[in-house]
Amino acid sequence: MNYLTQNSPYPVHVLPPMLQDFAQQVVAATQSSYEMVVPVMLTAMSAAVQGVADVKVPYGEVLPVSLFSCVIAKSGDRKSSVLKKVMKGFEDFERGRFSDIPMEGLKSHQFLIEAATNKGVIDIFKGGAYSLFYALDEAALLFKNLDMPSLCKRFDGSAINEVTRSQGSTILHDRHVALCMMTQDITFERFLSKKGELFVQSGLMPRMLISQAISGINSSRWVERLNEEDLARHAFHLRVKELMKEYARSIGKSEISRQHIGFNSEAADLWNQYHLQTKKISEPYENWSEMRSFISRSGELICRVAAVIQYFVEPNQDVKGWIIKAATDIVVWHLDEAKRIFGNGKDEVKFFQEVDGLYSYLLKRFQRTGNCFITRSEILRCGPQSIRKADILDASIDNLIYQGKILKYFHGGRRYFRLNNFPHLF
């Protein structure tokens, strides 16, 4: 995870203007990237919508609009700052700041969750909540007690049917959960090394919009940044508050009533075209076959993303064609990320990690010794452990030569490698 080799920038341009503007403002204010900001925004939007609306997909089933996202970034890449910029409307709900909501019965409750057990979440639901949001700027809090089957059930909106000696029988329907899981790359790597296969095979990872982000990758684009007060009054936050007020009015009622978001004919046709394509690319002879579990979930994710965007910007209307196109571009981008990390693409990531490790070693060696020349045999003896194999080392050297970072040099019948432009390293 330490080396980012994304094939394309995040398709932020497909979002409606209001969402594009808010994403630009958060990127500028935090010096982060769209790869970090937009997945957090989408998951937060789904958390706001999931309490008041469901999506009726083109094949007729009614599903939650809840989204799960996983953003991987280095320590110091502004994960906490990004999450804080997006969460204001939910914090106002938790603190009961909606003065125009009658306070008869439960009109607010804990909504944002960091560390939680499945039993604890069920207790909040039993207290009257219908909707919750796991919002973690460090997923290590969740990894310690990660209950994958239960989270999969929460994503699907499955009924909660439990019987315990202490609590007796618990039967709850239509409880919805969104999840935004941000984590350091090192923490994520360690977790994958232990439970990575289960993470995928359980179905939890294929349900997620996964993204790897680097701070500042998009921040060079100039934008007239709003001050903190103006950003707090942005239309994004105002819409979140409207949705949370609508949700608050429904708490305590005997029946949960959510609006169904459908698809107009153009949107349904576009979704069906995508569905036919996915059936083909997941066949064994295609290069996506090892990602079948991700592909099979992608159609549903497109429906959820499209419904969230539609209801957030234009409520009380069916999903339109341009929105299904936008949702498809977004989900396909995340599929490419998943393929890069979990599919064949992970070999490419590993290779560039090795190249990066070799170059870092050569730089540190030069800074320590002042010698910019090195032999292949010395690298095999003393270089990073990951490249002390002839074929891996040769491929890494060839790549650094191609990039112009090192040069071949022959002296006294021996072959050396020399750092290029080494006087400028300090």
Task: State the gist of this model.
The protein has 426 residues and is α/β, with parallel strands linked by helices. It has 16 helices and 13 strands.
Query: Would you tell me the structural class of the helices and strands?
Result: alpha/beta
Shape: elongated
Weakly predicted, low-confidence segments: 1-5
User: How many β strands by DSSP?
Assistant: 13
Q: How would you spell out the order of helices and strands?
A: HHEEEHHEHEHHEEEHEHHEHHHHEHHEE
- What's the arrangement of strands in the largest beta sheet? 4-5-8-3-9
Largest sheet: 5 strands, parallel
Radius of gyration: 24 Å
Mean pLDDT: 84
Tell me what the structure shows:
The protein has helices at residues 17-30, 34-49, 79-86, 88-94, 118-126, 140-143, 148-156, 185-201, 228-232, 235-250, 265-281, 292-313, 321-342, 345-369, 376-382, 390-403; strands at residues 53-56, 62-64, 68-73, 112-113, 131-136, 160-164, 168-172, 176-184, 208-212, 259-261, 373-374, 406-411, 414-419. The radius of gyration is 24 Å and the shape is elongated. Helix content is 50%, strand content 15%. Strands 4-5-8-3-9 form a 5-stranded parallel beta sheet. Strands 2-1-10 form a 3-stranded mixed beta sheet, with helices on one face. With 426 residues, it is of the alpha/beta class. The chain is built from 16 helices and 13 strands. Mean pLDDT is 84; it is low at 1-5. α4 (88-94) runs parallel beside α10 and α13 packs across α14. The longest helix has 25 residues, at 345-369.
Helices and strands in order, then pairings?
Elements: H1 17-30, H2 34-49, E1 53-56, E2 62-64, E3 68-73, H3 79-86, H4 88-94, E4 112-113, H5 118-126, E5 131-136, H6 140-143, H7 148-156, E6 160-164, E7 168-172, E8 176-184, H8 185-201, E9 208-212, H9 228-232, H10 235-250, E10 259-261, H11 265-281, H12 292-313, H13 321-342, H14 345-369, E11 373-374, H15 376-382, H16 390-403, E12 406-411, E13 414-419
Parallel strand pairs: 1-10, 3-8, 3-9, 4-5, 5-8
Antiparallel strand pairs: 1-2, 6-7, 11-13, 12-13
Helix pairs in contact: 1-2, 2-3, 2-12, 4-10, 11-12, 11-13, 12-13, 13-14, 14-16
